[in-house]
Design goal:
140 residues; mainly alpha; 5 helices
């Protein structure tokens, strides 16, 4: 089955739209929380907390990968000082591979956790809406 370039681009755009439409936290940020019930908002808060916790674990692993670059450089210098040139070159060759791995994990993190950088804002929006609803209910 052959696709033309325009069909392929349209297909990719539709996949992106489906992915973004499925992210309710992103919808709260863009459209507002007034379309959700109280129960749904509480569920979204739980989902947000789980996502932040998972993103923090992923970020720690990413930072360990990035920090290991300095370890490889230091090990390379140490091996060079000791005269172990082959091991020094081996450690030095790990630097670009680790940098590529760090870049790949950074891209993966931004794609997987789209609302992570806005998590505090989304949480504040949901809390404000729940507080507004609580105050409106107390009037009656």
């Amino acid at each position: 089955m052959r696709f033309r370039l325009s069909e392929y681009l349209l297909y990719r755009q539709l996949l992106r739209l489906e992915r973004e439409a499925g992210d309710e936290l992103l919808q709260v940020l863009e459209g507002g929380p007034e379309y959700y019930s109280n129960q749904e908002l509480h569920l979204l808060l739980e989902q947000l907390k789980r996502q932040v916790k998972e993103a923090n674990r992923f970020n720690k692993k990413r930072l360990v990968v990035g920090g290991s670059i300095s370890l490889w450089i230091g090990a390379s210098f140490l091996c060079g000082a000791l005269g172990w040139y082959l091991a020094g070159y081996l450690f030095l060759s790990l630097v670009p591979l680790t940098a590529i791995a760090y870049l790949a994990t950074t891209i993966a993190m931004h794609r997987r956790f789209r609302t992570y950088k806005h998590s505090r804002l989304v949480e504040a929006i949901i809390f404000q809406e729940l507080e507004r609803r609580r105050k409106d209910a107390s009037i009656f």
